[in-house]
Design a protein that fits this description.
The structure is a single chain. It contains two helices and seven strands, in the order βββββββαα. It is α+β, with helices and mostly antiparallel strands. The strands form two sheets. Strands 1-4-5-6-7 form a five-stranded antiparallel sheet. It has a two-stranded antiparallel ribbon with strand order 2-3. The longest helix is centred in the last third of the chain and has 21 residues, at 83-103. The radius of gyration is 15 Å and the shape is globular.
Length: 111
């Protein structure tokens, strides 16, 4: 996991991208503005260019539970990935980065 960057700046504390083989495959973040006592951590697994089923995202009470749920879903997704699907996801993500650069968003330039 690494901090999420929006327009080159870190999005905020408690906002992370999950990277696999150089591809952003998900996000875990604390949702601001959630009432006290309500689950306020979000997790989601999403392969670039693929629809995200509802079972591939959720809300938890803490980051550790998000990590556990993310790992369970990601292990199933990863087990079914072919080399072709991985290459397609990488190409989709690269096109997205090129589009951001074309629009003037340099956030993909920063690690």
């Amino acid at each position: 996991m690494r901090p999420t960057r929006l327009k080159g700046d870190v999005a905020g504390p408690n906002d992370y991208l999950v990277i696999w083989r150089g591809i952003a495959v998900g996000r875990i973040l604390r949702q601001p503005g959630t009432p006290v006592g309500k689950p306020n951590w979000f997790w989601g697994v999403n392969l670039p260019g693929q629809p995200q089923p509802a079972a591939h995202r959720g809300i938890c009470s803490d980051i550790e539970e998000c990590k556990r749920r993310f790992k369970v879903v990601w292990s199933g997704v990863k087990a079914g990935l072919t080399d072709e699907a991985t290459d397609a996801a990488r190409r989709t993500e690269q096109r997205g980065g090129e589009l951001k650069k074309w629009r003037g968003d340099r956030s993909s330039d920063t690690p």
